[in-house]
């Protein structure tokens, strides 16, 4: 099972690899159509991987938030919920949805 930290690390590696491929785009007469096709195919696959990891990250964060608030609901009579921890989880969720790259 993937943890949030593992998935974030995988996403970061994919983004780094994607940036490298963008910097090394085959341009010029020395590159054949096959070179450009391979580059395009690889970039497309990396973008798909990134998109899938973004979806997984969103799901993991949703699960984390639900688990936190479900745990708070069960113990509402005996303890108060930690606003700082809840705000940090929500902030992390919002930042991932608005992050470019």
Which secondary structure elements does this structure contain, and how are they paired or packed?
Blueprint: H1 4-23, H2 33-74, H3 83-98
Architecture overview:
- The chain has 101 residues and is mostly helical.
- 77% of the residues lie in helices and 0% in strands.
- The protein contains three helices and no strands.
- The longest helix has 42 residues, at 33-74.
Give the structural class. mainly alpha
Low-confidence stretches: none
Specify Rg, calculated over alpha carbons: 20 Å
Strand content: under 5%
Count, helices? 3
In one word, what is the shape? elongated
Average pLDDT, all residues: 81
| H/E element order | HHH
Helix residue percentage: over 70%
* Strands, count: 0
How far apart are the first and last residues' alpha carbons, in Å?
25 Å
**Largest beta sheet, briefly?**
none
Short recap of the structure:
By secondary structure, the chain is mostly helical. 77% of the residues lie in helices and 0% in strands.
State the main characteristics.
elongated; 77% helix; 101 residues; 3 helices; mainly alpha; single chain
